[in-house]
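Consider the following input, taken from an annotated entry for Peptidase M23-like protein (Algoriphagus antarcticus).
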Amino acid sequence: MTDFFPVMGEKLSSENTFKMDFSPTNRDLESLDLADTNIFDAYVTQQIKNSGSKYGIGGYLEHRAIYRRSLVFATAAADFRNIHLGIDIWTDAGAPIFVPLDGRIHSFQDNAGFGNYGATIILEHELGEKKLYSLYGHLFLSDLEGIEIGQEVRSGDLLAHVGPFPENGDWPPHLHFQLMWDLMGNFGDFPGVCSKREVEKYVAICPDPNLMLRSEVL
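Applying the prediction step yields:
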């Protein structure tokens, strides 16, 4: 079994991590002004604090009610993108993010705009005879300074930090962590959500990130 360095520098256990729910079954979201990031952030912070945890986690293939806050996800009604393809780790801005597996920097860019990724880094890894890509979204903009495409990274290296809003795409601070077998020609970006119609296609491309995170909470 491959050893992965903890992405947040420590194991995401039941002692320090709380499973978050952003699906339509969470009635709190009905009365929450999600377009106001300060209100959204206060809600996330309180949820984590009430649980006695350091991190909130969840989201892989979750049907989410929170994407109505941004037109980034709006397509035709039948194809509204609200199925989450990564795992989010909600915590304080500035929290360090580490490289889980040896690899290299494939690409990076600032995916600016309300509801987007903000600063994003994609790593390329060799896993047996296959390539696996890992994406880190909602970072500090300064994390994109001084790095280069093709730069080698080692397991356990400090990669980046959880970014603050509004520079992180205007979200409550969190890391969007996603795995992809195929980038489909994307560079510095990759869809983090899909429509229900596209789920089968994207599940084949985007495996469960907990295969690498190995959190007992999920």
